[in-house]
């Protein structure tokens, strides 16, 4: 498993000008269960796959409310994600208290990115192992950002992260041009379709996914399971057209995360990987 | 025993996006003696196997009262568990003093998880080597959480951790659907049955296990040995149906912790492993 | 990938008197998408290639306004660049508040260089992985500086950094003698021509590049996409004379960054390189 | 002497979830000269073997008075033990000054264990290399605890630690059921018999052992040599029934510390091991 | 490129009593472009070769004014040199403010040397990679010092540092006896001749060198390019007697820095060396 | 010279529960020139061998007065010993100032031992490399302690440390039973005889040894050379009975420090060992 | 050049109880140019060889005035020596200001030794690489001390340190018995003779050595070059009896520092050793 001598310390550059430890942390995002986001001019929808640890437990929460106008979906190290989302919550409260107006989404995203950047430049820390899709609504409209372990952030019309997210991205790319004018309900429908793409033939039910919405006149809220199931039934999504092998192959070629996946599986017999 | 170059430092990511030191700390939980928890709508029962160090000593305590409405059962490094449970006790006292109401269980669990997360992101610390089953009752009802060395936590209907916990988990999975409506005494009975599954044919007596209960109208309390023995006798649990080889085999295949177990045994001749 | 024993720590000199970690950080600049700058006596123009992460996202911003009279274009680690440009912004505000006059460009550039130098002399940090083209106008005229990860800075008439920048540099070297007397619009036109040189046959459109201008009577501003497209159409730049193979070969021989490029590509199958 | 890559740093987990440095520190306890403790309902007796450095010196003290109601016997690194027993003394004084009542034994033992736990979770420290048998009397009766380098503690009816302690443990296990009702003098007698078991045929005299007692109406005190010799004579212990080879063999098989012993002896020609 | 185990840490002595990291930092001075200094009783002249990064940029400044009576020429890591010269400037200002008289040159040189020494005795720093020729005039006359990365300093009649400085040193050694009585203009002429020796056949023009003078009645000033060109023309230096192969050979044998030069060149294909 | 992986860091335990770095520091004591101490009920005598660095120098002082009632003789690293004896002096002064009575010897010895223990539990320090024989007189009589680098201390009737101390120890063991009742002068005589044993046939003169006495009615004082020579002459010690080969052989077998001695000698050609 | 695993860290003991890093620092003293000192009852003379860096420079100063009654000559790392002599100067000033009397020489020497000792017990520092001959006059007479990198100091009648100092030591040992009664001028003469012994046949002139004197009625002063030349002429020292090969051979055998010398010379082709 030896790669090179430049990849064990976050403050060490490789000869080709790369920071491998940051890239490896980005791998942790790819290993997490999938999360997707998409937005119209007025609404943002977040969705994620509920990872079932066991029949005995509730699923691990992957979508968090930050404030009435902001929410976040994570993929990767859940504990890191929880710590970061509490940081966001605290920033929103402080801003609201000081300025008596909601914290602009873009501003929060930059603060979050700076917090991540610091962890890429101190030898006694490690980069966060989590990707965050930040959905928010402010005076400049609806926003969807992706915050990456590297300290970068990007604004998206629609995006998908986590394991098998390539299939969802392919779906979103086919449809995104109509999103800006989509109604809230169409966005939710597309979110459900995109999530189904990541399930590899598993049946889409309200128990395997979580959906959250924020928009004009609608505070950030996570839809309850009944509502989601009703939507699934209504849209007749469930079970129709299983993901084809092509899209799976496309994925393998597309982002090359299948190799890590295999080594992960091989290693699984030795020590259980963290829940990410 | 060499694995790879990414697994000796908690701040080093592997190329596949894993933090091996955190996973190894999770192994310590698997090596500890078993602990189980299960809950109905009104009660939570914790149970653990008493590890006999020697005839001369009392057994090592693995269940601690945190507050009147919260208790904890641990598996793994006992010293780490003791330090964390005292932290929980202190948080409960402070909250009660400030707000004159009991600390909500979920809130305490998040604080505990954050304390664990910090130890996964500092190069001069190590992750805690202990898993905690937190049982509590608050305004939102009875709760059972599992806090993991990774800084994650999960809410469970019923769960088992520690060595040979797979057999208990199998038992709980067969029965958990009826737990929400179970009476307090049925929960205790199921706890005793689940514990027996982890004993590998050893006779279940009140000296090999500890049982604690918290519920509506019942502060967290550890049942005294006579009560437990009376229950065992009443339920006629003891000795009936020894754990079959199948379930043992299932366990070996199921969670693959038998390999570490063997290497642990092989190493035992060299230096005595800690009491976990 | 082993080179030598002197290249993993930024505080270690090689026997030949080199600091390899600083040089490797300079490689990160070469891997970033291209940025160019050029100036006349009265105006400075910055231009950069917009790296398309995905159809779904807006492009990553690489040009930032610092103050009314100063702006910056970056190549390399975007997160580092963002942190540094906010530092610059904050210095400009403080200076303006104290002295009620704009911060001289050269002075800001020296402060920026000193901040970078510190990171080359502390064992627990790493050099910044970003190059900055700083464009500004002050009492002494229009200025264009290049700030390097090593803590050096240089004043230029025109310069290009980032991947495939050699072709743009070649173009600028052929033309730079006329720049001092160029009109604002001629500068913009030359910027567009230079950017096209780095595109390797890709068609130049307003979506693949960003242009910013600062000059006498014109505060630093990023041109909107329509304006840029109009300019491209007006100048009839798009598509005419694709970059020849000669210039590509010249580039490979000229700055030898093709070798790292290849190793980068070979490694790409393993872990996705950061967005730089 | 190479074992594995996980055993040189106290903050590094092994893949099997063990902290080898803590286990190695526990080995130091096994290498120390033997100490034993036993208690009735009213009295606790501590005893230890006096290690003769040389004819010229008094023996190294291994039993310390902490307060009128608490005393301690150590095995392992004497310097670590001395530092810890002074810590205990200081805690007792502070408690007595604040609450005007003696510090409960169990509470002191927990504080001691926490102090030890901290040394197992900081990379720049090492675990203490000493085991402590804490004897005390408080409102809840007579207590005997064993504090281990791992930060664990155990309550015992009777226990023995240090080199060749297995033989003493075997003796104590045969007899411990009658200890709760034993008279003070019978406890002392059993302590002397247990100590003799660890001597491997050496004659038991008052100069090779130290005895201390704490109990109802008797402050913690170390018996003077004449008293001990008188007891030995009275009980006619000395010389009668030399430890048989069987028990030695039993010991070798029982705790497997003979291997370290040999390597220790082999290494003795190189550098003198510390006095432990 | 492995040398030995004593040369990666500045706080590690080699068995022969050498600090290799300090010596390697001194190599950085040898790799920098050449700088020379020479003095009469009343004047000091500094000169350096302008390294042309590119046609597009102004050359990197290597001569800095510190105060009216002090200036400095550097060879080696420019960023380190800039930081140190600002330190000098600040010391001069503070002294002038406190004592209302110029800071004596020798005193400043000692402070500078002490700042360098500290960096040779802390494990988390690195020695500065720059040599400084300090020219100054104070009550005790004209002075020329050389400050070395090792924390040493030397007073010189004339000296040359940087790449190919051996040829200049040879020239200066032939002529230095007449320097004390030289006129200002003769000093400048000798400076130009010495600089030409380092050019290896390249034509001496005002664009390839910078000249600065400080002396009685003349504050430290850098001569403008026209003045220098006029002097070159006047003295008819340019082009006459190209440096012979003998002097080049002499150099190679004399200071043996050609070996590092070659390894430097060989390595150049991999990663661009810093501008020094 | 490689031993194992556990012996380069003072905070690393070996698998057998040893701290090698502490043991190696104890070797430094064995390499120092010999020091001996012996006491009666009323007096303590310290003696040491004067190591002749050169004819040109006075010998290195190895006996220090701490206070009127305490003195110390050292073997090992002289610089460490000097620092520790000044610490002792300062403690005595502070105690005397606060309590207006002399600091009890045993108390000072414990403080000294604790200072040494701290250096065995911090990764960024090293154990002191010096052994101290502390001689003192207080209300409880005359005392002789040995403080070891491990943080241990021992009370002795008589003891010898340093190179070839085994021969002196053998002498002292033959005679120590009469020491408690010895007169001051007999103690001094025995000290001289013991010192002679360590000289390996070298003639005992007042220049090769230093003698100090503290006792009832006699403040700690170092005897002047004339007095010592007079005593040597009076007792007719010098030259009579050279140490036999037997005792030398006994020594080699007895403490096995001859092996390190040889390796030390072999290494001497490379780098001069410190004066210890 | 690999020696062993114990010689790269100043806080690591070797198995034989040596601190190699301290010994290596002592090698730096041996590599420095020679310095000698000698004293009568009333005067102390320091002398050193002036190392000629180049014709162009003044020689490196190796003798420093500390106060009117104290001066110092150094061999080894000049920068370290300069820092230490300024520390001494500052201590003298502070003492004089507080007590209105000169600081006793012995006291200053102890403070200096303690400063050196600290650098041998911290992992993030390195031992000073310089030896100091301290000459001083106080109420107790004239003193000559040698302070070593190990933190030791010695009082000498006469001593020589640095490269080829063995020949000077041999000379001084032949003559030292008459030094106490020597006149000031005889001491100076002997100093010059001793210096000549270190020159290996080079002619002794006033330019190759520096002489300083402190004594009754004569503040510490460095003799000017004319005075020294006059003395050389007067004593007719120069050139008479060149050092014989015998003394050179004696030296090689005597202190074995020729081996490091050779390795030093061999290495010289790689990187220039520091000026020491």
Structure description:
The structure is a homoheptamer of 276-residue chains. Chain A has 276 residues and is an alpha+beta fold. Helices cover 38% and strands 21% of the residues of chain A. Chain A contains eight helices and ten strands. Chain A has a five-stranded antiparallel sheet with strand order 8-1-2-9-10. Chain A has a five-stranded antiparallel sheet with strand order 3-4-5-6-7. In chain A, a hairpin with a 5-residue loop joins β6 and β7. The first copy, chain A, is globular and about 55 Å long. About 12% of the residues of chain A have low confidence.
Blueprint (SSEs and pairs):
Seven copies of one chain form a homoheptamer.
Chain A: H1 20-31, E1 35-39, E2 43-49, E3 63-67, E4 70-76, H2 78-99, H3 105-118, E5 130-138, E6 141-147, E7 153-155, E8 158-161, H4 165-175, H5 184-197, E9 209-215, E10 218-222, H6 225-235, H7 245-255, H8 258-267
Antiparallel strand pairs in A: 1-2, 1-8, 2-9, 3-4, 4-5, 5-6, 6-7, 9-10
Helix pairs in contact in A: 4-5, 4-7
Question: Characteristics of this structure?
Answer:
homoheptamer, 276 residues, alpha+beta, five-stranded antiparallel β-sheet, Proteasome_alpha (chains A, B, C, D, E, F, G), proteasome (chains A, B, C, D, E, F, G)
């Amino acid at each position: 498993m030896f790669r090179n001598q430049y990849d064990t310390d976050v403050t060490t550059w490789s000869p080709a000008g790369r920071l491998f430890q940051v890239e490896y942390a980005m791998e942790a995002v790819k290993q997490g269960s999938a999360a997707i986001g998409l937005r119209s001019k007025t609404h943002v929808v977040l969705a994620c796959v509920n990872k079932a640890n066991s029949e005995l437990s509730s699923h691990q929460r992957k979508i968090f409310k930050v404030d009435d106008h902001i929410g976040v979906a994570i993929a990767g190290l859940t504990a890191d994600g929880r710590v970061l989302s509490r940081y966001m919550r605290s920033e929103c409260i402080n801003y609201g208290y000081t300025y008596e107006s909601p914290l602009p989404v873009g501003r929060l995203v930059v603060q979050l990115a700076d917090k991540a950047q610091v962890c890429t430049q101190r030898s006694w820390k490690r980069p966060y192992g989590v990707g965050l899709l930040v959905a928010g609504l402010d005076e400049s409209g609806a926003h969807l950002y992706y915050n990456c372990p590297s300290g970068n952030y990007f604004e998206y019309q629609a995006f998908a992260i986590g394991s098998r997210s390539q299939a969802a991205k392919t779906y979103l790319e086919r449809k995104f041009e109509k999103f800006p004018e989509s109604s809230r309900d169409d966005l939710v429908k597309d979110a459900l379709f995109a999530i189904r793409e990541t399930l590899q033939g598993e049946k889409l039910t309200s128990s395997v996914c979580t959906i959250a919405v924020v928009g004009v006149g609608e505070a950030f809220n996570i839809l309850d399971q009944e509502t989601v199931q009703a939507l699934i039934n209504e849209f007749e999504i469930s079970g129709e057209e299983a993901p084809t092998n092509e899209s799976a192959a496309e994925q393998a070629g597309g982002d090359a995360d299948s190799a890590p996946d295999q080594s992960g599986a091989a290693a699984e017999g030795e020590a259980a990987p963290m829940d990410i």
